[in-house]
Design a protein that fits this description.
Elements: H1 20-30, H2 34-44, H3 48-63
Helix pairs in contact: 1-2, 2-3
Length: 67
């Protein structure tokens, strides 16, 4: 498990959705709830770039007009 200094830090290479601190950090960074973040990590893995991609893709689907 990653050690944190007093200011707190996260692993920028992987998202540990089981760690409350990291889960809150990444959820806030991506503008989603912790529950949504966990679902995305479960679907695409723990890579921040893969998670960001999926979240952005989902946001575009939600914002595009229905045909």
């Amino acid at each position: 498990m990653q050690q944190r200094n007093l200011a707190g830090s996260v692993d920028e290479i992987r998202i540990n959705a089981n760690d409350m601190f990291e889960c809150k950090y990444w959820a806030k960074k991506f503008g989603v709830t912790a529950s949504e973040l966990k679902s995305v990590v479960k679907a695409v893995g723990d890579s921040p770039s893969a998670v960001r991609s999926r979240i952005e893709k989902s946001a575009k689907k939600l914002s595009s007009p229905a045909i």
